[in-house]
């Protein structure tokens, strides 16, 4: 038995610290592990050697600062994780290993609003098909990250707003999918997962405080504070789309008037252009036409940017993030939308907060949320599991037949 404070328990804690650092980064040199964990170079060297001998990590030659180094990543045999992203019109699934490599990924159209039964059934079948395609045994699945386009109630695990996904009323999506797959499922809203994806793989790399603003059919924000997603006690932190801009403005689906969402989201801005551009206009096509010079589309995007900037200015004054990353199809408009955002921030934010802020487009596009779902599993899984020789099965599973 390990005694707290004993050499054995201290060694075990150091093993887990190294594994955790590598798990969150994907790969690190030994010098980077030492800086991240605060352990001495000699201790890191000994632990890496032990983990390599045990099959937990892999070590490959690399270079850092022009010098030879050794890159440490988790073993490809240590397990795999799955990301599932439900958008309002699509389902996307990705399978990755613990070294942050995506092994398989696929998306298909889906009307998620219509039925939770259909959506979860489609997700189950796609997950099973992609895992089989990797050639890795289903017993190696450590967990699944699930993203949904709405706020998740922290206590109950259910969607916090039935007006967003009426076909999912009363459903606990994590429990439902876990019951189908027989593995742990971690759930979050799409904006939080977009923030995680950009933090680990995209435009948020290298910072600890950022806001990911997703503008699509709705508007939401994922907030990262000191390297961790902040959800709030009820799970609704980041609902930037419901900041009031005009008390006499359009009625929002939340019941208030003049929310940011009513000036920027697809369901509100596209009808402004459809009389001249047809009923099938989408955000993606609006952005494409704007980039080609269409004056109406350009005007709508610029106006949306100014309104988004007002919301970002409020975030700056409250949380002082160092970076804002714009996601969703509107981000493809580039400086046409980013310029007005920066102008509004400069006008309405506290000058010191505005000076420290950088506003960037997302680097991952439509993949941000599904990669964030992978990152969610990587952040929630226990390090002790990785120090065992195998990943134990946890009850009956459709993946472990």
Overall description:
This protein is α/β, with parallel strands linked by helices. Helix content is 42%, strand content 20%. It has helices spanning 7-25, 30-37, 41-53, 116-134, 173-181, 190-201, 261-264, 266-277, 283-291, 295-319, 335-348, 351-356, 368-380, 383-386, and strands spanning 27-29, 57-64, 67-74, 80-86, 90-97, 102-109, 141-148, 185-189, 210-215, 219-225, 228-230, 323-327, 358-361. The strands form 3 sheets. It has a 5-stranded mixed β-sheet with strand order 6-5-4-7-8, with helices on both faces. Strands 11-10-9-12-13 form a 5-stranded mixed β-sheet, sandwiched between helices. A 3-stranded antiparallel β-sheet has the order 1-3-2. Strand 4 and strand 5 form a beta hairpin. The longest helix has 25 residues, at 295-319. The radius of gyration is 22 Å and the shape is globular.
**Radius of gyration from the alpha-carbon trace, in angstroms:** 22 Å
> With helices defined by DSSP (H or I, 4 residues minimum), what is the helix count?
14
Task: Name the overall outline.
Answer: globular
Structural class: alpha/beta
Order of helices and strands: HEHHEEEEEHEHEHEEEHHHHEHHEHH
What's the end-to-end separation, in Å?
35 Å
Task: Tell me what portion of residues adopts beta-strand conformation.
Answer: 15-25%
Major beta sheet, specifics? 5 strands, mixed
Oligomer, anyone?
single chain
What order do the strands of the largest sheet run in, or round the barrel if closed? 6-5-4-7-8
Uncertain runs with pLDDT below 50, 5 residues or more? 389-395
Instruction: Calculate the mean pLDDT score and round it.
Output: 89
Q: How many strand units? A: 13
């Amino acid at each position: 038995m390990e005694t707290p404070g004993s050499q054995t328990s201290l060694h075990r804690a150091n093993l887990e610290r190294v594994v955790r650092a590598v798990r969150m980064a994907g790969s690190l040199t030994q010098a980077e592990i030492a800086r991240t964990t605060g352990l001495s170079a000699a201790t890191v060297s000994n632990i890496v050697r032990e983990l390599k001998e045990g099959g937990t990590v892999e070590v490959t030659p690399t270079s850092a600062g022009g010098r030879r180094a050794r890159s440490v990543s988790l073993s490809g045999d240590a397990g795999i994780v799955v990301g599932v992203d439900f958008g309002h019109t699509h389902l996307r699934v990705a399978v990755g290993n613990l070294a942050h490599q995506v092994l398989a990924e696929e998306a298909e159209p889906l009307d998620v609003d219509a039925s939770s039964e259909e959506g979860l059934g489609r997700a189950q079948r796609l997950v099973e098909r992609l895992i089989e395609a990797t050639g890795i045994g289903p017993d190696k699945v450590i967990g699944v990250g699930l993203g949904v386009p709405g706020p998740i109630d922290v206590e109950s695990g259910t969607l916090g707003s039935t007006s967003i996904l009426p076909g999912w009323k009363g459903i606990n999506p994590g429990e439902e999918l876990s019951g189908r797959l027989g593995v742990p499922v971690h759930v979050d809203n799409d904006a939080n997962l977009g923030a995680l994806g950009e933090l680990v793989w995209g435009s948020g790399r290298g910072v600890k405080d950022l806001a990911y603003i997703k503008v699509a059919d709705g508007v939401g924000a994922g907030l990262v504070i000191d390297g961790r997603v902040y959800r709030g006690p009820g799970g609704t932190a980041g609902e930037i789309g419901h900041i009031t801009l005009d008390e006499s403005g359009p009625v929002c689906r939340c019941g208030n008037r003049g929310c940011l969402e009513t000036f920027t989201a697809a369901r509100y801005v596209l009808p402004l252009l459809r009389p001249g551009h047809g009923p099938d206009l989408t955000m993606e096509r609006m952005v494409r036409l704007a980039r080609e010079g269409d004056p109406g589309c350009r005007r709508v995007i610029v106006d949306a940017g100014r309104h988004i900037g007002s919301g970002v200015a409020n975030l700056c004054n409250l949380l002082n993030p160092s970076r804002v990353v714009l996601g969703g199809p509107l981000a493809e408009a580039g400086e046409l939308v980013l310029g007005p955002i920066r102008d509004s921030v400069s006008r309405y934010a506290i000058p010191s907060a505005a000076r420290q802020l950088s506003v960037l487009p997302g680097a991952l596009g439509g993949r941000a949320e599904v990669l964030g779902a992978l990152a969610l599993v990587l952040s929630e899984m226990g390090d002790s599991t990785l120090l065992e020789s195998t990943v134990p099965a946890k009850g009956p599973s459709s993946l472990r037949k």
